[in-house]
Amino acid sequence: MHLDFSAPFARFFDLLGKNLGLFLGLGLIGVILPALAISYGLFFQTGFGIYDWTENAASIATADWWWLAGGSILIWFLKLVNLSMVTEVAILRAVGKKADLGAAFGSAMRNIVPILLISILVGLIVMGGILLLIVPGIMWALATCVAVPAYVGERGIGIMGAVHRSFELTRNNRWMLFAIFLVLFLGLGIVGGVIGGAGAVALLSTGGTEALTSSDNMTVLQIVNMIFEASLDMLGNIFIAGLYVCLREVPGKQNPSQAASVFE
């Protein structure tokens, strides 16, 4: 049996429709508000933000590099915690279970290093495939796309076990996954273009062409960019978690040996 093309999209919209407030809270409290606070602190300390430091790279003092590194690491840390929490909550809600946010946070703190190592391992696998004529890299990216939710959802599976489980779950479904991600990326591109265009029009309508170049409005654009990026990250995490559940439900893909799975 193969994965149905519409199943991940249906699962994604069902998760959002039934748990929108929960996910908004996780995104705002877990990433967006702390990241905005960190970015504002960095801006007032150094005069530049997380998203525009490259424009000031030539004039950044040594002390400011430390501020930039610290702020970036903190935001990166928040995103890893949020990735684990959103993934666990999405998996639990996808199978009709109640999500315990305290337990999810505790798991997230334990999962930081393993998820980081899984991300590095997956990155190396994909990079190796790209060096072998690109196509293997694409296939291996698809093969490892649910390694993180496999680790979160099947506790005790281990880092290598999570990557192996992802290969197992995606086997015979990778061309379908390619089509799914192609449609997803095209959709996100259209949405991003519409939002970006609407924002530019709004700024131009309130301040003319100077609105896009003044330092104040560039700061506003950075804030909007950060919120948009964090929102896309969270939506992507929800989609991947839903996709993982859909792949598990394909006949022959269940793994009953995982006694510590959140599915039980």
Structural notes for this entry:
With 264 residues, this protein is an all-alpha fold. The protein has a domain at 7-113 and 173-249. It has 8 helices and no strands.
The string of secondary-structure elements, in order, is: HHHHHHHH
Unreliable runs, pLDDT <50, ≥5 residues? 256-260
N- to C-terminal separation?
A: 23 Å
Using only C-alpha atoms, the radius of gyration works out to 20 Å
Task: Provide the structure class.
Answer: mainly alpha
Provide the β-strand percentage band: under 5%
Please provide the count of β strands: 0
Helix content: over 70%
Mean pLDDT: 83
Number of helices: 8
What is the overall silhouette? Answer: globular
- Give a quick account of the main beta sheet: strands, pairing sense, barrel closure: none
Provide tags for this entry:
single chain, 264 residues, mainly alpha, 0% strand
